[in-house]
Amino acid sequence: MSQSKNPDFSILMVDDELPWLRSLGMTLEGPGGFTNLISCSDSREVSSLFEQHDIGLVLLDLTMPHVSGEELLRRINEEYPDVQVIILSGMNQLETAVGCMRLGAFDYFVKTVEEDRLLDGIRRAVRMVELQRENQAIRRRLFKKQLEHPEVFAPLVTRDAAMLAIFGYLESVSASRQPLLILGESGVGKELVARAAHQLGGGDGPLVSVNVAGLDDNVFADTLFGHRRGAFTGADRERPGMIERASGGTLFLDEIGDLSAASQVKLLRLLQEGEYYPLGSDSPCRLQARVICATHHDLAEMVRERSFRKDLYYRLHAHQVTIPPLRERKEDLPLLLRHFLESAAAELDKPVPTAPPELVSLLNTYSFPGNIRELQAMVHDAVSQHPGGVLSCDVFQRRIGDARQTGGLVPSRNPFTVLDDLPTLAEAGDLLVDAALERAGNNQTLAARLLGISQPALSKRLKQRREHA
């Protein structure tokens, strides 16, 4: 793969003054961190450069021989309306700036402007182009309704419509260098989604994963930023941080909702400025990796409770996906069951067992608070105890029963206390039977297990109900 560039499209710098072009390029590459740059000192060559390169932003001088900047601005706006243009001129005249904005310029800067202001304006323009391209990609995906790289999502076994929509969204924003925030309960597969997003990014660097839960501020800084020799007692050699190791690839920060307040500040500064200081160093290093974060916490609620910084939250969710829990993806149960049966059998060097028809119905009665990870553990346990032939439901039944007891799923409050008129014992029994049959998909064997009675006893009760109806 080719070396990752920032941004994904080219920034074209057009000026007839070569010293200014060199100075501007050094500013963009150094403090700015932009690497996808093209210089042009002859305004007549601009049209051919547009044919040869994918240009998204033009930094344009006004006063040039041959073709003026104003004329180029007019042509670019007419022929390439999705390209943003920033005017960099030596003229500090309000009328000129207003005229350029009317012709479609994104912004106007005098060449003597402070470096920070100029870089902020260029970053805003780059972000605007990225958003335009992402929106176009999402619209194309909606019309195509198929994935361009389905092989990337193979480890995420699903046919759920919400999950497939997430896959399409990830493909649409794959070229963006903005952070991606992955939300979802524990066990839903957030790391698998992060790995898919990394593969779609196309960079040649690695995916570096860091679980930040429980890291204090000093350990967090040393883990991410690294340190120089002599930075602190015991630092007898230089140590690169995870950011440096992820260069050209992806830095995945898991459990981001558990970051301390001080570490949140450090992460915010990293994302805002795109640079960091290794411990013991006075020279900044550039962030050359895409950042993906994940958490099972409700960050929006944490912002309201002031336990998570609002500015960091909005910086993180430039792109955001929420992975639905398994209880909302019950149609995936047969696929996941088969997948985990095959993987567990391969790991244990056993033949793949046959699942009984009632097993999926049994699993459908359970809410899976541990999500896909819990189902995988159940299947592995069942296959490890399986002697051969048809798989028994007993292991699943015991684990579900144990989980319901230890998980406090039995209501602590009597559900009948809210009723003005209590049902009779016979009526309450009928309601329980109906609820059990609904959960079991009308499978009487499973419904009887849920009620704690035998299947013949349930059949007898149902027969008596039909006779008295």
UniProtKB/TrEMBL annotation:
Species of the source: Geothermobacter hydrogeniphilus
Positions carrying 4-aspartylphosphate: 61
Domain Sigma-54 factor interaction: 156-384
Any one GO BP annotation for this protein: phosphorelay signal transduction system
SUPFAM superfamilies named among the record's database cross-references: CheY-like, Homeodomain-like, P-loop containing nucleoside triphosphate hydrolases
GO terms of molecular function: ATP binding; DNA-binding transcription factor activity; sequence-specific DNA binding
Residues in HTH lysR-type domain copies: 436-469
Keyword Amino-acid biosynthesis attached: no
Residue ranges annotated for the Response regulatory domain, each copy included: 10-126
UniProt xrefs under PANTHER family: RESPONSE REGULATOR HSFA, TRANSCRIPTIONAL REGULATORY PROTEIN
CDD domains linked to this entry: AAA
Record key words, sorted: ATP-binding, DNA-binding, Nucleotide-binding, Phosphoprotein, Transcription, Transcription regulation
Designated name of the protein: Two-component system response regulator
Transmembrane feature ranges: none
